[in-house]
Amino acid sequence: MSSNSSSLYPSTYHPQPNALAGELSALLGPTKVLSGVGERLNYRYDAILIGQTPLAVVLPETTEDVVTAVRLARRAGIPVVGRGAASGLSGGAVPLQESVVISFTRMTQLNIFPLQQQAVAQPGVITLAVSEAAKPYGLVYPPDPASLRTSTIGGNLGENAGGPMCFKYGVSGDYVHALEVVDADGDIHQLERGAYDLAGLLIGSEGTLGLITQATLRLVTPPKYTRTLMIHFAEVGQAAEAVSQAIAAGAVPSKLEFMDKICIGAVEDYLALGLPREAEALLLVDTDGDDLETVEAELALVEQACKAYGAVVRRAANDLEAAALWQARRSISPALGRIRPKRMNEDIVVPRSRLPEVVREIRALSEATGFNVAQFGHIGDGNLHPNILFDPRHESEAAVHDLAHQIALVALRCGGVLSGEHGIGAMKRDFMLDALDRSNLEALWQIKRALDPALSLNPGKILPEW
Ligand SMILES: Cc1cc2nc3c(=O)[nH]c(=O)nc-3n(C[C@H](O)[C@H](O)[C@H](O)COP(=O)(O)OP(=O)(O)OC[C@H]3O[C@@H](n4cnc5c(N)ncnc54)[C@H](O)[C@@H]3O)c2cc1C
Asked: Pocket of ligand 1, candidates 333, 422, 463: which has the most ligand atoms within 8 Å of its Cβ, to mutate?
């Protein structure tokens, strides 16, 4: 099968960038459209990829603005790429051909409804802002990607973002009551969760099936008590096995994060927090709840399981000490950035029981290729982020991509999947050919064509051609 996207945007059609931008500007007003090349250049990348400079960038303030932009782009035969904060790690928000980028950063209305325990957010709302606005009402929004200070609700739902709390509390999509969506024709839909769950279909679809213009989100009351452990092991396999034992014994930690030796060393070089450089694996664990006895008992289960595997366990004495321990996890990204200027961030999920073997295989690939690969992730869910560190001035990006592919194949061979929370985007689109058989891929294409027959929404993402 092959996509006919090229015939939709015939090579004879070459709109002058400013002609399309001019039309958008005339309809929306000049302050909502960027047409200068210097301005447009800023909208061709996300946190991992650089793509093509868009023909025009629209900064909508209302759903009607989105409708206008989608309809005009549709009439001109130009695709539309939705964009939040562009912190994505799979190239989802990156235009791959002449496009109109719709950047949601001005759609930041947010209302809290404490009695309903709901927030109604426009897509440009920063993730952390939801919990900050909910806090005075004694409520919280649990999805906690490490990027929560910059990422947006639209981008989080586009990728179905997770975070350290997802093992106990779930991912972004688990907190959606309803969505307002603008479809490929520019029509507005109000989607509730329910039969056929069209809202669920939109979540994680990376802007390829519709553009989210509003989300009704579920808020919860935060737990009264939290307890924190830092645990280190002489061997990665011991960490994975201890975690499985603790969970089997009944512990449901709210956070369960893993860092390998490279991450430990990088964070230590960066912040000198006193982390054990000699350790092969470090776990950071929180248990939480409203009943202190249960919270302590769950912590004890984790502690016992880890000690049985020879781990060294350190309990945070208070909130301040816990925050200091978690600083280690939060600092991984900047710390790795000091080793090499660029990273390709893989995002595989494997059964927890296979983690030791997967970590070992990835290490072997790192040694064989000469690339530094740091590994960390949400070990409770088996979600691992092998980060390939490289310097594009001296190292080949094609070789990095090839290594990312090898890592994806290790995950698939061990019963895992290509992505836990960063999406497929452009980066892993071709790996989908390894992950799904042709009939499954064909079914996905049928859904895409049913909702976006002209293939005008974020082309080149998720679905491979063959
Ligand atoms: C340092 C760092 C740490 C990170 N940690 C995590 C983590 O812990 N967990 C995690 O899950 N991710 C993490 N990420 C990845 C990234 O932050 C998430 O994928 C986030 O959800 C992207 O949000 P964004 O607003 O930047 O979206 P963008 O990158 O702008 O867009 C992401 C995708 O969503 C689509 N999109 C954007 N807005 C809309 C909309 N309104 N309607 C429909 N589609 C839309 C885009 O087209 C694109 O496909 C991290 C990234 C960085 C740089």
From this structure: 422
